[in-house]
Fold these 3 entries.
Entry 1:
Amino acid sequence: MTKNQMEQIVLANMRKIYLYCVRRLGNATDAEDVASDITVELLSSYAAVKDDRAVLGYIWSVADNLCRNYWRKAARYETVEIPEDYAGTYQITPEEEMIRREDITLLRRELALLSGTYREVMIGHYIRQESCEQIAGRLGISVTNVKQYLFEGRKKVKKGMDMQREYGVYSYAPEKFSFNFWGDNSSGYWELFERKLPGSIMLSVWDSPKTIEELSTDVGVAVPYLEEEIAKLEEYRLLIKKGSRYHSGLVIYDGEFTDSVNESACAVIRDNSDFLRAAIEKGKSLLPETDYQCYPDDENTRGWFILVLILWEAVQQSEAKMKTPLTFPLLANGYKGYVMGLRGENKLAMSGIYGMYALDKGYMRVLNYNILTDKVVNPFERGARGVFCACEDRLGETTQLEKLTDMLERKIVHIEDGRICPNYAEISAKDYEGLMKQLAPEIDAMATLAAQIRDKSADILASRVPKEYMDAREIGGIVSMWSLLENAASIVLETGILTKGTDEQNLTTFYFRNEE
C-alpha cells in the first residue's frame, strides 16, 4: 500500500469516518477531533497494510481504537459537579437527533438482514412486545429456543450496526440476465425470469457463493423479500445451498463466449458456401418427386426449405460425432434437458427455435430468423394451436377468432375458397425421410463440420467455468449448435445463395404431416 493510495481511500471514506465517530462519541465537536486523529494515523501508518484487500478492515480497526482511547481519557479526567437543587433537564441536540435517526435506520437494516426464525423472534419481542412464551407458542418452538434466538439475534444486530456494509453493484445497476433452455419441456422455468431480481440473484451467486445476508446486501433487497424468490429457485435446483451459502445450479456464459462461437460458425458457413449452394440445388431438383407444397411458392422458398433441412438434420446428427455426447439430465420439472444462463447483452439472430411442435396429424418446425422477417411464429401462443390445427384439415372456421385475425394480418395463414390455409411449406413425414436419405452425403458432411465447431466451443466453455460444473462442456456444444443455425441465414444472404423473399412468404416455418 502506497501513501498516495491510502490518501485516495481516506478521502473517499472521510464522511463515513466522521459519521462513525459521531455515532460512537455522541458529540459532533469531539467527533471532528477524533476523525482528524484517525486520518493522521492512517496516513502515517500506510506501510502497515501489506494486503490492499485488507485496507478497509484496517481503517475501521484504527477508527475503533481511537474512539475507545477517547472514551478512556474522557472517563478519567472529566467530572461534573451537580448542584443540590438540580431538578434535571434534557435537551436533544441536532447531532444527537442525527445519531438517533441513524441508529434507527441501522437497526431496521439489520432486522431486514436477519433470516427466518431470527427475524421473527426479534421483531416479535422488540417490535410487537411479545413475551418469550407468546413467541414460542406462535412459532411452535420452546421458550429456551426463543431465548437462545434472542441472545444470538442481539449479537448479530449489534455486530451489523457496527459494520460498514457496502451494497453490491446488483443493488443499483443490475446486469442483463437471459435464461436459456434446451430439452423436452421447459415448463416452469421461463416464468421464473420474467423479472430482474431472480436473474440478479443468479449472477450474484455465480460471481461468488453467498449467504442469504450477503446476497441481500449485494442485490439491495431485504431478506424477507428474498426468501420466497430463493425458495423457488431452490425448488427448480437453480440455487443449491451448501452449508450456509448458496451456489449457482446452472452454467452462466457471457457475450464474449457467444461472439467467439458465432465467429467460428460464420467462418465455416462462409468457407463452405459453394458446397451449400450445390446441396441446395440438388435438394430442389428432388422436390418434384415429393408431395411438398407451399403458398406462395417459388425457387427461393424451396431453397430455404432444403437449406433448413440440411442444417437442422446436420446439427442433430453432429451429436453422434462429438467427443462429448449430450446426456440430457433429469430436471426438477420431471423432464430432461439443460438449463443455462447468459449474462449481458446478446444480439440474437433468432427470436425462437421450435424443433418439434406436435399437432393433431403432424408436427411443426419453426426457426424465426430476425434477418428474414419480423413475422415471428410462436406455436405456444394462446390460440395458435387451434389455428394451426384448422390448417391441417383446411377447415372453414375455428374457435380461436382473435388469434386467426392476428395470424391473417401477419400473413402466417390465408383464406382460400372459404378455408383456412397455411402460408408455409408442407410435406409428409414419409417424403421428408426420403429427401433426407437422398441428401445423406450432404447432411453427413455438414454434420462433421458442425461437430468440429461444437467440440471446440465445448472445450472453450469448460475452460472458462469452475470445474464443478460438469455439464459445461455439453452446454457449450448446445450453444454452438444454436449459433450454427442462427448464423446460417445471414451468411446465405451475404453470399447471394438465397434472398429474403416477399412479405407473404414464411420461409422458415414447416409442417410435416404424419401418415393417416
Entry 2:
Amino acid sequence: MSVLPMKHMIVCAKRQDRKAILEKLQRTEAVEIIARDDDEQDTVFNRIDVSQSAQLFVKNSAQAEKALEVLNSAAPEKSSLLSAFAGRTPITLEEYEANAKRRDKVMKDVTDILKLDKELTEAKADIPRITTQIEALTPWIGLTEPLSFAGTKKTAAFIGTFPELLTEAEIAERLAAAVPDVEALDVNVINSEDNITSVLISCLKTEKDKVEEALRRMNFQRPPVSDMIPSEQLDAYDRELKAAVAKIDSTRESIASYADKRDDIKFIADYFRMRAEKYDVLGTLAQTKRTFIIEGYVPEQYAGTLEQDLSQSFDVAVEMLDPDPSEDVPVLLKNGPFAEPVEGIIESYSMPGAGELDPTTPVACFYYILFGMMLSDFAYGALMSIATFVLIKKLKNMERPMRKTLTMFFYCGLGTMLSGILFGSYFGDAPTVIASTFFGKTLEVPKLIDPLSQPMKMLVLCFAIGIVHLFAGLVINLYTALKQKRYVDAISDSVLWMLLVAGLLLFGLTTDMVTGMFSLEKISPVAGNIGKIMAVIGAIGIILMDGRESKNWFKRTLKGLYGLYNVTGYLSDLLSYSRLLALGLATSVISSVFNQMGSMVAGTPVIGVIFFALIFLVGHVLNLAINALGAYVHANRLQYVDFFGKFYNGGGRKFTPFATNTKYIKIQDR
C-alpha cells in the first residue's frame, strides 16, 4: 500500500508543437496539468483566447450526440444485458488518425440526420393539428353547403352551434319568442352531441339583422369559415393526415438508413469532445510567439519514460523537480491486486492527506470479512463471486473503475462464502428443508456457530472482530506518528488508549456481569489485575497528556479529563459491530422464511416442486439483492466512522490527469 510520489514537471517547447504535445500527453494520461491564473502572467508570457474554437468543438460534439439519440430512436442499437459492463471500444492510433481525416464527411451525415429529425418533428406536429381539424369538422359532415355559406339572393343563412342540446322545435320556439315579427324562418339541426347542437338557420334577407341579434343572445357561435363542403373538406384532411403519417414513416426510414454510420458518429462525438478539452488546456498555457510552457504533476514512476518519450519525439526541454512542501500535490494510490479493488471506497471518503498512510490494504482485509459476515451465506457468496469472475474474464474492454468494483465484489463473495461455511448457511437452511420436504430425510449441516440458536456466541465473535478492527486503527495511527517522528503523539494518541481499552477489556472478563452476559468463562484474576494496572496507567496518561497543547496546568487537566471521557466513544464504536449480527441474522431468517414458504406448497410431487422452485428463486434473488446492498452500506459505515476515526483524516486531492475523457472510444497508443 502506498501513495505514489509525484514529480513537478516543466516542459518548454516550440509553439508549433504545442497541439501535438498536448495530444500525446492526453493519450498517455500520466500528467495533471497545472492551470495558472491570469494574475500570474508576466511581460514575457501570455495566454491565447481559444474560447471560440472550444465552443465550436463542444457544439459539434453535442450535435453528434443529438444525432446518435435520433438514430437510436429510429434504429435502436442492438445490445446485450452485458453491454453496460463492456466499456469503450478500443482503437489504435492509426485508426484514430484515419477516422479524424473523415470528420467533415461524418459531420455532414450528422447535419443530414438532424435535418431529417427536424422534418420528422414537423410531420409529427401536423398529426395533432389535422386531427383537431377533423374533430372540429366531423359534426358538420351532414351539411351540404360550405361553412362559409351565407345564403342566397333573397335569403340569409346562419351556420353555427348552440352550447346545449336542442331540437329544431325548441330552437324555432325560442326564436319566435325573441323575434315574433319574423315570418319566414327555417331551422335544420345538422348534429347534436356532447352538449353541442350544430344548426343551419335560414331567413329572409330583410330580417337578417333581427335574427342575428336574437341568435347572439342565445349564445350562438359560428365555426371557422371554409369554402369547401364539410364532407369534401374531411376527405382533404384525411388525405393530408395520411400524407403526414407517410412522411413520418419515410423520414424514419431515411434516418434509419444511417445506422451503418453509428460508429463513425460515436467517434466524431468523442473526437470533438477531446479537442474541446485540449483547447481548454491550451488556453491556460503560458506562451510566447515561438515557445510555450507546460507545468504539471507526474507520478515519479512514469517521469523518466515520459521525459524520454517527449525528448525523442519533439524539440523540448523537460525538467522533473521534487514538489515544494507548500504545493497542493495530487494523490495517486498504488496497491496490489488484493487491495486495489477497494481504492474506490477510499476515494469516496477522502484521499490521504500529506504524510498520511494509504489505508487501502488494511481496509481491504477487513472490508471483505465484514461484508461476508453481514451477508453470511455460502451460496450467495458463490453466486456473487462466480458472476463477477465471469464478467471480468469475458469482457476484456471493461473500464478500469468497473473492473475494480466487480473485483471488490468478487472478494466480498469469497468472504461471504467463508462466513457461510462458518454459520452453515447454504441458501439459508435450504439443504435441511429440501431433504425433509422431498426426501423425508433429516439432514444436519455442519456449522461452527448457529446465529439463530447461539446469538450471544455470534455477538461475541462480532465484538471480537470489532476490537481487532479498532486496535488495527490505533496501530496504524501509532506507526504513522512514529514514521513522522511525532513520538509524544504516538504515546498519547495511541499507546495510552490501547492500554486503557485493553486494560478495561481484560478487567471486564474477570467480572460476573460481563462473563454472565456473554456466557464466557472468567479469565485469571491475575490477568484482571494486569488489566487494572494497564487501564490506570492509560487513564492517568490521557489526563496528563491529552491537553498538552495548553500551558496552564488547570486547563490541561480539564482537557485531559474531557479526553478521558471519550472512552465512551470506544464503547459506542464497539457496539456498532453488533450490526454484523443483525444483518447476518436478517439474511438467515429471511432465507429460512422463503424456504419454509416453499415447503408449505410442496404437497403434490410435480406442481409442488414447481411452486417450491418459483418461491425459492424469487425469494432468494430478492434476499440476495437487499442484503448485499445492506452489507455494502454498513461495511462502508464501519470503515468510515469507526475505523477511520482512529487514525485517518484524509483531505488529499485525487490525481486527475489530462486524459481522453471519451464516451465511446479508447485510444491504444501503441
Entry 3:
Amino acid sequence: MKKIFHIIITVAVLALFIGCDDFLDVNTSKDSPTSVTVDQALPPAIFYASQQVYDHAEYAVYLAQALTTAGKSQTSTYAYSSGWEFLSMNRHPQWRRHFYDLGANIEELKKAAEKIDSKNFILIARTIMLQSTMFTTDVFGDMPRSKVYLDTSPAYDSQEDIYDWMFQEADELVELYANPEWAANKANIRITKKMDRIYEGNLKKWELYTKALRARLWLRKLPNWENTPEVCNKIIGMVDEVLNDPAWQEPRFNYTGGTSEQNAPWGPYAPIINAWESRGNRLATSIPTKFFAYGVLGAYDNNNSENARKYALDPRVEKLMTMRDIADKKGSTRLRWLESNIGMDVSMRVTNYPDLYGSGDNPYTLNDGYIALITDEELMFIKAEAQYWAGDKAGAYNTAKNATIHNMKRLGIVESELVGNALKRYNVFFEVRFPGESLFTIADLMQQKYVAMYLQPELWNDMRRYNYSSKTNGITYDNVPVYTITTCHNGKGTGIGKPENFSAEYSLRRPYNLYVPYWMQEDAFGQNAELSPNAWINRLNYDPETEDKYNKKELERLGAYKNAEWLKKRMIWQYNNSGKAVASDPTEWK
C-alpha cells in the first residue's frame, strides 16, 4: 500500500462544500496549500464518512440480492452484480476510501488538532475512523491497522485483533466524550456547520452516534459469535441509552443538489466521487429481484386488479420503485422482477421494469436527499434482535413492529393518513408480517429489517451474519430458515388479498450464472458441475490496484493472493460458535 499525498484530495473536496474560516489559515495560497489545518481537514473527512456508507451499500444491495441487472454474463466490471468473478476487478472503492480518503486525511487532522490541543476535532476524527474500520474489516477481514502508515507494505492485523481494538476504542471514546477535559477543553476551537454538515460540532450528538456505533459493533456477537443473555442485554441497554436520550438525532449528511458531488449518491444524477476510484449508482439500469419483489415485499401473482392499482402486500413497494407501463393483454402497469443474474428476456427492455428511483418519497434516492450514517430503524432492529435471542420474543415483536412503522413513516406512509383500500392494505400487511407474539420468528424479524436496510450497508452484513439461511442451503436459526419467505399468491379482486391467501413460499438461492471456475465443482469424472456447498461469497478480495502490487507477500501469507477460495471464507462473526445454527450439511462449518 503506497502512502499518498492527501492534502490535494482534502482541498479538492473542500472547495465543493465549504468556504474557509480564516482563523487558522496559514497558507500563503489557498490553491497551493503547504499544510493542512483542522478547519480544512474535517469537512472532507465527514463527506467521505457519508460517501463510505454509499460505497458499501452499493455492493450490498446486489450481494444481498435485492437488485440485479438485465445481463447474465459471468464476468463484468461489476462482479458483485454478475458472476462474482472478483479477482479481475482492478479496484474496490471501499478499500481506498478507508485507507486514503479517510485514513490518510484523518491522520493529518489528528496531527493538526494535537498541535493546537483542540480535542473536539480528535474525538470526531476517531469516531469516523472507528466507523470506517468496522465497515472495512466487515467486508475484507484481516487488514492493516496497527502499522498501516508506518510502511509502504504494512503487516495485516488479524480480524480478531481488529475487533479487540474496536471494542476497546468504542469504550474509550464514550469515556472521553464524557470527560470535561476533552469535551469542554478550553483550547477546543468551535466547529461550525461549514466544517461539520452532520452535527455542527455538537459533541453530545457525536457521543450518541459513537454509542450507536458501539451497539452495531456488539450486534456482531449475534447470532453466532457470543449469543448469551448477558451480551443480548448489554446490546439492549446500549440502544436504549441512545434512543432514549433527548439529544439523539439521526446522523444525516444532507446534499443540496446541483452538480457533481453536491448530489446525493443514490439520486438520479448518480455522481461519481473522485472519478477513477468510485462508481455512480446504477439504479437506472437495475431490476428488483424475485427474492426482493415477490418474496420479501410480497408482490401479487395476480396483477390485473384495477380497483386499488396496488402491486404487493407491502405498501412500501410504490415508494421504493415506480411501476412502468408495458403493452400486455390487459394494458396494465405491473411490478416485474428477475431472478438474480438470469438475464432479461429478449422481448423486454429495462424500462419495462420498475423505476428504482421511486415515487420521490424515498429520501435516499433524491438528488437533494441524504445519507444516514446509521438510522433509527437500524437501532430499533438491533434492539429487537437482541431481545429475541435473550428470550423476550414479545419485546422483540413490539420493537420490530415499531421499527417497521418508523421505516414506513420515513417513506411517507402514516397510518392516521390512510383511508379506504390503502388503510385495509396497511392492516393486512401487519396481520401477515406480524402474526402475533407467539408466532413471531427470527425470520419475520430479519425479513422486515431487510426492507428497512434497503440501500444500506447492513443489508449484506445481516445476510452473512445469518449465513444466507434458507431452505436452499439447509441452515436454520431457532428452527426456521431465515430467508425463506411466505409470500402472496392471490391479489385477485381487491388488489389487497386476505391474510389466509399468503401461503406460497420463496427461498433465497444463489444467483444464476456464477463464474464456473470459482463457484462450481465437478464430480469425480469431471462432469455434472454443481455449485459447491459453501459457494456463498463472504468477503471481497483485497484491492488489486494497491495490494497485489505493493503487499503481495502479506496476501500470500494469508492465502488470499489471487485465490477465489478466500472469497468464501467466513468472517469471524459467521462461525457457529454459539451453536444457534443448524445445518443439514454436516461439513458446513468447516
